[in-house]
Amino acid sequence: MNNEQIISILNKKLNLKEIYITGDSNHIKIIAIGDIFKGNSQVKRQQIIYAPLIDIITEKKIHALSITTYTIDEWKKTKKKQSD
Question: Which Gene3D superfamilies match (predicted)?
C-alpha cells in the first residue's frame, strides 16, 4: 500500500480539503485538513480517518498510523504560526 493509494481512499470516502502523507507501510503519518472535523473530539477525528482505512489496517498492509487533523481554520492558524 503506497501513500498515493491511501490518499485516494481517503479522498473518495471523506470530504477533505487537503491531505498529506509521509512514511511507509511500517509507519505512516497523516495530516488531514477539512471542516469534516468541526465540533469533533480528537478521538472522533481519528475514528473518521480510521474508518475508510480499517480493511487495509486489519490486513496488515499498514502497520502503524500517526494522525493529525485540523479544520480549515485551525490549519490556517497553524500555518501562520509556523511562518511567524
Answer: BolA-like
Specify the pLDDT at position 79.
80
Report whether pLDDT(75) > 70. Answer: yes
Asked whether the predicted pLDDT for residue 10 surpasses 70, the reply is yes
Question: Nearest CA to 26 among 46, 1, 53?
Answer: 1
Report all structural domains of the chain as residue ranges with CATH numbers, in order of start: 3-79 (3.30.300.90)
User: In angstroms, rounded to a whole number, what is the distance separating the alpha carbons of residues 49 and 44?
Assistant: 9
Q: What span, in angstroms and rounded, lies between the C-alpha atoms of 45 and 25?
A: 21
Query: Which cell is 43 given?
Result: 478521538
